[in-house]
Amino acid sequence: MRKIIKNGTIVTAADIYNADILIENGVISQIGQHLSTDGSEMIDAEGHYIFPGGVDPHTHLEMPFGGTVTKDDFETGTIAAAFGGTTSIIDFCLTNKGEPLKDAIDTWHAKAKGKAVIDYGFHLMIGEVNDTVLSELPSVIEEEGISSFKVFMAYKNVLQADDETLFQTLVAAKELGALVMVHAENGDVIDYLVKKALKEGNIDPIFHAFTRPAEIEGEATGRAATFTGLSNSQIYIVHVTCEEAVRQIAEARNNGVDIWGETCPQYLVLDQTYLERENFEGAKYVWSPPLREKRHQDILWNALKTGQLHTIGSDQCSFDFNGQKDLGKDDFSKIPNGGPHIEDRLSILFSEGVTKGRLSLNQFVDITSTRAAKLFGLYPQKGTIAVGVDADIVIFDPNSERIISAESHQMAVDYSAYEGMKVTGEPVSVLSRGEFVVRDKKFVGKLGSGQYLKRAKYNISNESEDKTYTI
After folding, report:
1. pTM of the model
2. Tens digit of each residue's pLDDT (9 = 90 or more) over 87-115
3. DSSP string for 367-379
């Protein structure tokens, strides 16, 4: 059925204007004033912004880690994403050494089948590089439409790849047209510091932060940037938390390296003191990289505003406090790493960014949707509002106020990382390819309606940006 969204203010990464939107067959067919209403369902967006659906480039749904599995799967995770204004996610396929890459991809397809209520794509982890892996990569891109590879520089003896693997992945990505994503922490140093802390009897959650200092995130970011420059490739640093990493990204971009940076809402509004909470409550805030001292928050906000950082992912990786996080009650290194963030990503960035004058409306859309769509081969079908693109639309009330709480969130996890936080602005209704998933803050979607997204190759060069970045 045709739908017309009337009376709202359309906001894209470039424009702000008032117009009506006609949706037909899942796409936007017209944008203009006084569109013909014959046979159309009318949707009144008076007093609301109309944003393109959020693109979350960093999620971990139904992911095994630390002897358990993340609590939110492709059902609860994508429902929560939709309530938060996200209409496309890109999740991570974890691979096993010595096994075909296709096996991992098939496993993740099975996880999502019949569950996802919004569209989704995959990144592929690269844990080793050899002739077999290299021979598989072209089909991963051409047949599966997976044009981004993830390399971990942390989690020694579990996920961590060595420098040779990272460098060879960068070389291959340059040839194939893929974007390499990196978790930038020095896993070898972390392993030493963790063992030292435990030997000294330091078992509490705060030592998760003390054993993963900002300096080694900065070191790993710089090392990854150096390898990217040497290989003339392209790289995307995930979940940047600190001044040290921001500085490395800015300096590398100034030197012509094709490098991009992502941060997450948790690093913008939470700080290291949360890990000090009594009665093991600090375990709720154990994820990697860890929360930093509060002074880093202003650095991150400024980096988003000035273009030193480019996107915001959720790094959704939820574990229950009871029954999962408490696996590390006597050893902080056994606390499953990750937190619940997918549902509040847009609201936090709008409330703390736009309403407090740190970001413009256009920057908000770029950071939460458009830039990720461009970097990961989804644009223009995703990430903007224009004629001919998928009708992924968020009707957003900028004046609505709510208190974030586990009692009201859609995620399956038993706590909220932002419990009690007051935010201004929230999605009211969310459409995916022209169909309501959330309407008037109620779920009306259909399980399995989300479609798998085959993505185009990486084709963005920072040659188009002539800014010099300083902090």
Report:
1. 0.96
2. 999 999 999 999 999 999 999 999 999 99
3. IIIIHHHHHTT-T
Report helix, strand or coil for 452: strand
Distance CA 443, CA 449 (A): 13
Strand 234-237 and strand 179-183: the pairing is parallel
pLDDT confidence of residue 14: 97
Dist CA 391 CA 183 (whole Å): 32
Provide the pLDDT for residue 38: 84
DSSP character string of 106-170: HHHHHHHTTT-SSEEEEEEE-----HHHHHHHHHHHHTT---EEEEES-STTTTPPPHHHHHHHH
Contact 58, 264 (CB under 8 A): yes
- List CB contacts of 221: < 8 A, sequence separation 6 or more: 184, 237, 240, 244, 245, 248, 249
- Which residues pair with residue 283 across a beta bridge? none
- Alpha carbon 451 to its chain centroid, in Å, reads 18
> For residue 459, which amino acid is it?
N
Q: Mean pLDDT for each consecutive 10-residue tract of the chain (471 residues)?
A: 95 97 97 89 97 98 94 98 98 95 97 98 97 96 98 95 97 98 98 98 98 98 98 98 98 97 98 97 98 98 98 98 97 97 98 98 98 98 98 98 98 98 98 98 98 94 38 38
**85-105: buried (b, 16+ CB within 10 Å) or exposed (e) per residue?**
bbbbbbbbbbbeeeeebeebb
pLDDT at 39: 86
Place of tokens 């970011």: 221
| Helix H or strand E encompassing 196 | helix 187-199
Residue found under tokens 């909470």: 277
Q: Could you tell me which residues come within 8 angstroms of residue 388 by beta carbon, excluding any fewer than 6 positions away?
A: 27, 28, 29, 380
How far is Cα 436 from Cα 305, in angstroms, rounded to an integer?
Answer: 32
Our CA dihedral for 217, 71, 393, 349, rounded to 10 degrees, sits at -40
